[in-house]
């Protein structure tokens, strides 16, 4: 099985990758980070992937290299996959993520998003378009660190309130 993480370098995408990596280590599952990169300098600039005047001219390969470095920092054991597209709309990005998911058939897709309330509106949300696919489970990550869970005392195999 594989855990798939759409990765755009955002704070919550980093959190989703971190969480998937932790689950992957615990469950001995592979993790694939997927970056869908529109071939559009203006888009790359607007999301912080590229700044005009950088030492290298804009290219999908340059952006992919930077995103791969982010993945390697967070989850060194993860596989990195990039997909170039022409259209940078959320629907187009979600469609490519779904296509890749259909190809690799992950058991869980980890989505870093704070737009959970808008997830039913796939036109405005990449997460919504990906979550709409019923062929895999979706783990939504809204915070970088998971909530603290106190230790559950076990006596005779049953939960006991303390």
TrEMBL record:
Organism (species): Natronorubrum aibiense
Ranges for domain UspA: 2-142
Stored InterPro entries: Rossmann-like_a/b/a_fold, UspA
Source species, domain of life: Archaea
CDD domains, per the entry: USP-like
Protein's recorded name: Universal stress protein
């Amino acid at each position: 099985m594989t855990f798939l993480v759409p990765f755009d370098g955002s704070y919550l995408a980093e959190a989703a990758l971190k969480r998937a990596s932790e689950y992957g280590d615990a469950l001995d599952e592979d993790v694939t980070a997927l970056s869908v990169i529109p071939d559009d300098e203006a888009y790359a600039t607007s999301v912080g992937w590229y700044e005009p005047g950088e030492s290298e001219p804009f290219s999908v390969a340059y952006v992919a290299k930077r995103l791969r470095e982010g993945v390697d920092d967070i989850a060194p054991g993860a596989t990195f996959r990039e997909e170039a597209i022409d259209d940078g709309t959320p629907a187009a990005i979600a469609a490519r993520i779904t296509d890749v998911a259909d190809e690799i058939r992950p058991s869980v897709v980890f989505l870093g998003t704070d737009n959970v309330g808008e997830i039913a509106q796939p036109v405005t949300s990449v997460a919504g378009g990906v979550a709409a696919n019923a062929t895999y489970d979706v783990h939504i990550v809204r915070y970088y660190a998971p909530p603290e869970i106190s230790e559950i005392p076990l006596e005779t195999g049953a939960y006991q309130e303390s």
